[in-house]
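Course assignment 3, question 2. Fill in each field.
Student: A.L.
Task: Predict the tertiary structure for the chain below.
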Amino acid sequence: MPSGWQRPSTASASPARPWSASPTGRVAHAALVVPAGLVASPLAPLAREVLIPLLRYRLAPRRDRLLRAARPLLSEPDEELATQLGAVLRHVRLDLRLPRLATAAELRGCAAPFLVFAAADDPVFPGAAVAARAREIIPNLAGVEVLEGSRHIPPQAAFRHINARVAAFLRAPDAA
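Answer field:
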């Protein structure tokens, strides 16, 4: 990983939770990368592409099953992330409930500008739907971008692009 470059956390959280309960003005800027809580996951594709392979791996942990489980989530092969996913699946009790959907009312009180990145090929939170919902409910949306060719965990090139866009957004949020 390049120096100074951080891979965003893959933990999901609703965008409304941290800001809706905070006093107005406490958050100066918000950049969301493949956010949960904006759209409901399409259940049939989610089960077929993600949940069933994850459960199969959990029941009989083998390398081939791990790679099959990771494939729909990773935009590019990444041995380190696949290994981490395997460790999580074997040793962490996962809460598979998705966060509830954020509402416009919850976000209304937040004055912070938002920059949203959605992944076009994400089987969990489809990019076009995330972008449309962000435009609908986020009052101070400074920008929304659908990352073409990206799945739930975008490729490294996308992260470099995201980091550059977020740095510019933090310097001048109105220019996003």
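Instructor remarks: The first strand starts at residue 30 and ends at 33. Helices lie at 16-20, 43-59, 63-70, 79-91, 104-108, 127-137, 156-171.
Grade: pending
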